[in-house]
Design brief:
The complex is a heterodimer of chains A (about 140) and B (about 160). Helices cover about 30% and strands about 35% of the residues of chain A. Chain A has about 140 residues and is α+β, with helices and mostly antiparallel strands. Chain A has a 3-stranded antiparallel β-sheet with strand order 3-5-4, covered by helices on one side. In chain A, strands 1-2 form a two-stranded antiparallel sheet. In chain A, strands 6-7 form a two-stranded antiparallel ribbon. In chain A, a hairpin with a 2-residue loop joins β6 and β7. In chain A, α2 runs antiparallel to α3. The longest helix of chain A has 18 residues. In chain A, about 25% of the residues are buried. Chain B is of the alpha+beta class. In chain B, strands 3-1-2-4-5 form a 5-stranded antiparallel β-sheet. The longest helix of chain B has 17 residues. Classes of the chains: A alpha+beta (about 140), B alpha+beta (about 160). Chains A and B meet through β2 and β6 of A and α1, β1, β2, α3 and β3 of B.
Chain lengths: ~140, ~160
């Protein structure tokens, strides 16, 4: 239970804010550039607020080459474990393939599992090319 | 008030804090290729749809490849990595994959990503290859020593 004004997320630095509850970071990778998806996401967030009592501390939204990268810092009244976060990310519209691998990582007890890249590259004909980058 | 606190805190982290860098490599698996021809009428059930794709050879065939393969490296520096440094770390990690006797052709199917975040305390260097051949059992190879030896970037522990 955290009551301080500055919270610490395990391995993710610190976030400041007010309120009490359990702090978690949700990372959403949307693979389409469609404003409707963002509208759907906001609808779902409102539902989450009502049913899970989530309080949103910080929204960091960035556009990538193929879609959007969204990082949410939320405070919940009930503690959210790693599997809950995977479910929430999937439910909020994150890439299903990414969430499948996140689920496998969590299931096998890996510590580092939730990554959302600032930059992505691939080797094409031996040369490294930037596939996607946060703007 | 909250915003002021956050801005001040982020400013202090930016100027005084450290950066934890994470470099990841994943094997990308595309199960079904995009069909360039029309899917015939009459396919109503999911089973029929799957069987049709398999019969046309559209489901990706796999050799003795691992079903999942990922490699990651994590270390702390003062500032985020430059493009050249990122490229250097990626090359080290590819070298580690090749030394672990994975097929070199797998590198063509891999995607590499970079993430960093600001922190106050340094975190120790950690590098691993994780893989699974059946999706049930996951194994890992610790490549921290190799990365430590080859990493020519000044890191903090």
């Amino acid at each position: 239970m955290v009551n301080d004004k500055i919270y610490r997320i395990k391995g993710e630095g610190k976030v400041s804010g007010t309120g009490s509850g359990f702090l978690s970071r949700i990372k959403i990778d949307i693979d389409e550039k469609n404003k409707k998806l963002l509208f759907n996401l906001s609808k779902r967030l409102i539902i989450l607020k009502k049913y899970l009592g989530l309080q949103i501390l910080n929204i960091d939204e960035k556009e990538s080459n193929s879609g959007y990268h969204i990082r949410l810092d939320v405070i919940s009244k009930i503690p959210l474990d790693d599997k809950d976060i995977v479910f929430l990310q999937l439910w909020l519209g994150s890439d299903w393939r990414r969430e499948l691998f996140n689920f496998l990582r969590v299931k096998h007890g890996f510590k580092r599992w939730n990554v959302l890249f600032k930059k992505k590259v691939r080797f094409i004909k031996g040369k490294m090319k930037v596939v996607s980058e946060e703007k | 008030m909250v915003d002021v606190e956050r801005t001040v805190y982020e400013f202090l982290l930016r100027t005084l804090g450290l950066t934890v860098n994470e470099i990841w490599g994943h094997l990308i698996y595309k199960p079904i290729k995009t069909a360039r021809w029309r899917i015939p009428y009459g396919l109503k059930t999911l089973e029929e749809f799957l069987r049709w794709h398999e019969s046309r050879g559209l489901v990706q065939r796999r050799l003795d490849h691992p079903i999942a393969l990922e490699v990651y490296c994590r270390f702390t520096t003062r500032k985020p990595l430059t493009d050249e440094q990122f490229r250097h770390v990626v090359l080290i990690l590819t070298k580690c994959i090749l030394q672990a006797f994975f097929y070199p052709e797998l590198l063509d199917y891999m995607e590499w990503g970079y993430e960093f975040y600001r922190t106050k305390e340094p975190e120790p260097l950690e590098a691993r290859i994780r893989f699974s051949r059946d999706g049930i059992e996951f194994k890992y190879i610790d490549i921290t020593k190799k990365v430590r030896k080859w990493l020519m970037i000044r890191y903090i522990e």
